[in-house]
C-alpha cells in the first residue's frame, strides 16, 4: 500500500486548492436529478434547467469546449461545458479534472447536433477528487478475486454487477412482501450465542471481556426464533447473517444470509407451500418469467421454478440410486467400505453420506425431498407412522440444497435426549453442550409448528445465473492480500 496515491493526481489536487476551491466540499448543490431519466426526457423537457451529480466516466475535447460523461446510479448523461458559459473560476477547474472524479453540472437540457442528450452547463462544481485511476474504460476489472476484493471499483466499472445487487435487493423485498401478506413478524435475534446450535457446523469463537465468558457467532437463528413461538409470536421470520467456520468454495462463504421462518399450528407440508410462494415471488423479482413460466437459467440449463414443485421420498430416491433400502445395515456398511467413507459415523449418518454423494447431484430440477432419517434431524418431529424417520424436507435444484424445513420438535424430553446424544457423539460439527435454556423454553410449551430455512445467497445464485457465491455477496471473505499489493 506504499505510494498509494497517483503523483499526477496529487499534483492536480494541490492545483485545485491553489485555485481557492475545496476538492472535497461538505455538500453538493441542491435539486439534483437522475441522469438517465433526464437524458430520456431531453426532448419533452428541452430548455429545462437541471442539476446532475455523478462520476466522470468520459471526457472529450479540451480548450474552450469540453464534453463530460456523468454517471450516477441510474445511468449516464453527457454534459457540455463551454468557456463562455461558465464562471472563469469554475471553468479553470476542468484543467485539474480526471476520470473517476465526482462533479455536478447545472444547465439547460437538450440535444447536440448529433442528437446526444446533453446538459449545456452554466455551473460546474467539483464534488470529490479521486486520487487513483479507474480501470480502463472498456474492460473494467476482469480478475475475479480482484473484483471481489475491490468491490467498490467493480460496482462502478461493471454496471451489470451493480444491477445484480439491485436484483438481490428486489428478491429480498419481494419475499418480505409475502411475509407481510401472511402477517409474519420480522425480528432480530442475537448474533452472539452462549451455546451454539440450530445447525451442524463449526462456530467462530469470541470472548466477552466484561463478563469473562466465551461466546459464539451464531451458526443459525433457529433456537431463538422458536423461543418466540413459546412466547406467543405465532408467525416469525428473520433474514439473519450467520457465521460458520468452514472453508471457501463456490458454494460456501463463512459469513452468509439465512432466511428462517416459523409458523405455529403449521407443519413441514405447510412450510413447503409457503416456500413455493416465496420462491415464486423471488423469481418474479429477479426477472425469471419467460413465456408464462418462472425459469432460472443456471450452469447452462433451465430450471423450472413454477409451483408446485415435485415431491419425492428420501427413502425412494435412495433405493433407486443405490439398489437397496436405507434400513439395510449390511448393504449400507458394504457400500460405505467400498466408497472409503468413515465407518465410525453410525448407520444413519452413513446413509446420509451416501445420499449426499449419490443422490443429491442428480436433483437438477426443483424438487422437495421428503422425510429424512430421524438420526440426522435432531430438531425435527419424528414421523408418527415410521419412528426412524422425521417430518423434514429439503428443497434441491441443480444438485444444491436451497431450503430445509421441519415439523418442529416440541417435546422437551425428547429434545433433551437428542441434545445429549449429540454431545455424547462428539461430532466436531455438532453442538458440544446442551442448550438448557432452550429445553426450559420448550418445557413451558411450544405449539405444533413448521419451520424453514432458505440459504439466500444460494437462492440468488440460482435466480441470477451466477456460479460462485462470492459473486452475489458484496464483500465476500478472501484470503489475505499479499503485503505491498
Name some characteristics of this structure:
BirA Bifunctional Protein, domain 2; elongated; OB fold (Dihydrolipoamide Acetyltransferase, E2P); single chain; alpha+beta; five-stranded mixed barrel; about 475 residues; eight-stranded mixed β-sheet
Structure, explained:
The protein is of the alpha+beta class. It has two domains: 7-128, OB fold (Dihydrolipoamide Acetyltransferase, E2P) (Beta Barrel), CATH 2.40.50; 156-310 and 365-471, 2-Layer Sandwich (BirA Bifunctional Protein, domain 2), CATH 3.30.930.10. 31% of the residues lie in helices and 27% in strands. The chain has 14 helices and 20 strands. The chain has helices at residues 7-18, 35-40, 88-92, 144-149, 151-157, 159-181, 222-231, 268-285, 314-322, 329-339, 347-358, 412-425, 436-443, 456-464, and strands at 32-33, 49-60, 65-72, 75-82, 102-111, 117-128, 185-186, 192-193, 205-208, 213-217, 235-243, 255-264, 289-290, 293-298, 301-304, 311-313, 367-373, 389-397, 400-407, 449-455. An eight-stranded mixed beta sheet has the order 7-11-12-20-19-18-17-16. A five-stranded mixed barrel has the order 2-3-4-6-5. A hairpin with a 2-residue loop joins strand 18 and strand 19 (400-407). It starts with 6 loop residues before the first helix and ends in a 21-residue tail after the last helix. 35% of the residues are buried.
